[in-house]
Design a protein that fits this description.
With 329 residues, the chain is α+β, with helices and mostly antiparallel strands. It is built from ten helices and 13 strands. α4 links the parallel β4 and β5.
């Protein structure tokens, strides 16, 4: 059995610019009906030039610290899940550390696409086993729109920007939410179905050459849909089974907010009604690694989650990566 691990504070931050489907209709060959029918999305938020990944992360982090009643100086580690950091180097976690006025504590980015927050959460859980006194800032922060091709109407309507953060603590500093279990999975053999190749060492930028579509999200939507539903349902069921539970024992399920069709299909696979599933994809879109912490923070803030509840988290992202976590409030 692992040592106890807790979430002691939550926070979220969204960019100041909301983008409705009507706004996208003026930018792309699409329509509100087309977007809503296929994705369930009516609104999302687009970061502006002064709102890079680190700034979104900083604002979410400050809110999570306030929620936990902590100061930045109380932190021991910083983990950021993102695929859209400010730069290749320095990492967003190091930029965030400096923005918080800190020096010396370990800080790194973790790249697991939409599963980034849950990958960071499980990493934090491992660190708290070694360091029960740890207070770890875990952030999912994305400026997805920096890697979206607005000439590809099948993908550009899906994504939005935002950040969510959690303060994860060990046995020495118990918090109100206990992380009961988590499971991480990946399968690189199908990674080609969802890619951003441009800029990597296998697809190097060449000085003076134009930026092509390979620098942006490219996705085989039909196949990604099938893998996402199957993998998220299976990992969720496995986490529940090894804790002696079924979906009936869970009070709320928070899946990655990719699109409403995927969310509805997962609910059907788990044999639960949509009243048991938290949905904000209609208002926020797919914010990749920020999706789960934003939804979790919202659900707590509006009272959808109450003390005593069990909450199941599940995600799926490029790589492919997928994960699930079980929380006790």
């Amino acid at each position: 059995m692992s040592s106890p691990c807790y979430i002691s504070g939550l926070g979220l931050h969204l960019p100041r610019t909301a983008m409705t489907n009507a706004d996208l209709e003026r930018m792309v060959d699409t329509s509100d009906e087309w977007i809503v029918t296929r994705t369930g999305i009516t609104n999302r938020y687009f970061a502006q030039g002064d709102e890079p990944c680190s700034v979104l992360a900083f604002n979410a982090a400050r809110k999570a610290l306030d929620n936990a009643g902590l100061a930045p100086q109380d932190l021991t580690h910083i983990f950021v899940g993102t695929f859209s950091g400010d730069y290749n180097l320095p990492t967003t976690a190091c930029l965030l550390q400096d923005m918080l006025g800190l020096k010396g504590l370990p800080a790194f980015d973790l790249a697991a696409a939409c599963s980034g927050f849950l990958y960071c959460l499980e990493t934090a859980r491992a660190f708290t086993c070694l360091h029960p006194e740890a207070r770890i800032l875990v952030v999912g922060s994305e400026v997805c729109t920096s890697r979206v091709n607005f000439e590809d109407r099948t993908t550009c309507v899906l994504f939005g920007d935002g950040a969510g953060a959690a303060i994860v603590t060990g046995a020495a500093n118990p918090g109100p939410v206990k992380v009961l279990d988590a499971m991480l999975k990946a399968d690189g053999s199908v990674g080609g179905l969802l890619t951003i190749h441009g800029g990597g060492s296998a697809c190097k930028p060449v000085l003076g050459q134009p930026v092509g579509p390979e620098y942006f999200v490219q996705m085989n939507g039909r196949d990604v849909f099938k893998y996402a539903v199957r993998c998220m349902a299976e990992v969720s069921e496995t986490v529940l089974e090894r804790n002696g539970l079924t979906a009936d024992d869970v009070d709320l399920i928070i899946p990655h907010q990719a699109n409403i069709r995927i969310i509805e299909a997962i609910a059907k696979k788990l044999d639960v009604g949509m009243d048991k599933v938290y949905v904000n994809v209609d208002r926020i879109g797919n914010t990749s690694a920020a999706s789960i912490p934003i939804a979790l923070t919202e659900a707590v803030a509006i009272g959808r989650i109450q003390p005593g509840m069990k909450v199941l988290l599940s995600s799926f992202g490029g790589g492919f990566t997928w994960a699930s976590a079980l929380l006790q409030f």
